[in-house]
Design goal:
Largest sheet: 6 strands, antiparallel
Strand order of the largest sheet: 2-1-3-4-5-6
Distance between the termini: 23 Å
Mean pLDDT: 89
Structural class: mainly beta
Shape: flat
Order of helices and strands: EEHEEEE
Strand content: 35-45%
Number of helices: 1
C-alpha cells in the first residue's frame, strides 16, 4: 500500500509530502494540483512519460518519492540531463531501473 508521496519542484509543488491511509480522498479547487499528484504517482510507479516542462519554473530538476508500507520506495528524478527511476529497498539498498 502507498504510505506517502513526496513531490519536489514538480509543477505547483515546491516540497510537499502527502500521507495516505487505507482510504484517502484528494479534493480541492480547480487547478489546485490534484491531478498532478496522480500523474506523479503514475510516473514513478509505472514509468509513464514525464516531460521536462513539468519541472517547476526556475528549478533545474523535479523529484518524486513514493513510499510503501513495506519500507520500499520508488524515487523518480527528472532534469534536462537525467530521467531516472530507482527502487530503494527497506535495507537502504538501491536498484536503479533506468
Amino acid at each position: 500500500m502507498i504510505e506517502y508521496v513526496r513531490l519536489q519542484n514538480y509543477k505547483t509543488y515546491v516540497d510537499q509530502t502527502i500521507h495516505f491511509r487505507l482510504l484517502t480522498a484528494i479534493k480541492g479547487e480547480n487547478d489546485a494540483g490534484k491531478t498532478n499528484i496522480m500523474r506523479a504517482v503514475s510516473a514513478a510507479v509505472y514509468g509513464t512519460s514525464l516531460p521536462e516542462k513539468h519541472i517547476r519554473y526556475g528549478c533545474t530538476e523535479c523529484r518524486f518519492e513514493v513510499g510503501f508500507s513495506d519500507g520500499r520506495k520508488i524515487v523518480r528524478v527528472r532534469s534536462a540531463k537525467e530521467n531516472s527511476v530507482s527502487l530503494i529497498k527497506p535495507d537502504g539498498g538501491r536498484m536503479n531501473t533506468t
